[in-house]
Amino acid sequence: MNKNTIKAPCTVLLAVVNVIVFLVLSFQGMTEDGRFMLQHGAMYVPYLIKNGEYYRLFTSMFLHFGYDHLFNNMVVLVAMGWNLELEIGKIKFLIVYFVSGLAGNILSAWWDILTGSMAVSAGASGAIFGIIGALLYVAIRNRGRIGEISGKGLVFMVVLTLYYGFTSGGVDNMAHIGGLAAGFLIGVLLYRKRKDKRGSVM
User: Which positions, given as ranges, span the membrane (predicted)?
Assistant: First the structure.
């Protein structure tokens, strides 16, 4: 097999794992049902605090409420993740993904505690917003572009998505904001512009 066949293997693997988890759960019950999702690792603050089930901060990143939720997240994951992984490499990409996902869930949990609005939540969107946040920083460092993606296009997508979230019900906006901010900060810490063979910055 040609080594260059899959240029962004981590992105592809994450998408495949999310789809497999969803399909397995779909055969067992209704993924749109909050109780069913709670039984299989979804986020719920009372369980985190009272029962110490902190693993939910991680497992909830691989659960989705229905086909639309999964499809929308996976399309963005593959499109954005592919570009980021090619730009910063596999290890840094995985750091961005998982740390952003956890940061988004932590901010979401804090917000639930602050407002007293305890909801069952799940999804990879916090991690995906982290990818977008890191891409924003990379775009800034590269004069507004990353391959075929422009910084302005990323900003527009973020604003549009956040607007949709705040004007719709059932969207975990705090997870999005937390993931976005974490991804941007991780990008600042980890990203270094590559140099060409003559030693100049690309």
Answer: 12-30, 61-82, 94-111, 117-137, 149-167, 173-191
